[in-house]
Amino acid sequence: MSKIYFTLTGTKYYHGNEFLKPGMKLKLKKEPDNKFDKEAIVVKMEGLGEIGHVANSAHTVIGESMSAGRIYDKIGNTAKAKVVLVTPHGTICSLCKKSLIDNKHKKMEEAVDE
């Protein structure tokens, strides 16, 4: 499977995006009780807490990166990601392949087979 990219948005409501640099590690956490978006995924950074959300609107998703709705069923309750590119319009991040549900199931199957 090729890399999965998503747009980090809403950073202006937290800490801005000036501190973000390529390679920084992020943690994603589903927010099923979010009153605005049932597919909301919050993005956190160690030491800062919440820094934004995975974009889930045609107005906030940059280019062909995936929206929260498109990755929601591909991950468990949490996932890991890295910053790839920071722009004034949003930040492009890549989802860690180990966070994908398919890869987790493969690892479990391999462990059982051994």
Give the integer mean of the pLDDT values: 88
Would you count the extended β strands for me? 6
The run of helices and strands is EEEEHEEH
Approximately how much beta-strand content do the residues carry? 25-35%
Can you list the strand order of the major beta sheet?
A: 1-4-3-2-5-6
Q: Indicate the structural class.
A: alpha+beta
Q: What does the radius of gyration come to?
A: 14 Å
Helical residue percent band: 10-25%
Overall shape: it is globular
Please report the number of helical segments: 2
Biggest β-sheet strands, sense, barrel: 6 strands, antiparallel, barrel
Report the uncertain regions: 108-113
N-C termini distance:
24 Å
Provide the descriptors you would attach to this structure in a database record:
about 110 residues, alpha+beta, 2 helices, about 15% helix, about 35% strand, disordered C terminus
Offer a concise description of the structure.
The protein is of the alpha+beta class. The chain has helices at residues 68-71, 101-113; strands spanning 5-9, 25-30, 41-45, 49-54, 78-87, 90-95. Strand 5 and strand 6 form a beta hairpin.
Question: What does it look like?
Answer:
The chain has helices spanning 68-71, 101-113; strands at residues 5-9, 25-30, 41-45, 49-54, 78-87, 90-95. Strand 5 and strand 6 form a beta hairpin. It contains 2 helices and 6 strands. The chain has a 6-stranded antiparallel barrel with strand order 1-4-3-2-5-6. It is an alpha+beta fold. The protein is globular.
Secondary structure layout plus pairing:
Elements: E1 5-9, E2 25-30, E3 41-45, E4 49-54, H1 68-71, E5 78-87, E6 90-95, H2 101-113
Antiparallel strand pairs: 1-4, 1-6, 2-3, 2-5, 3-4, 5-6
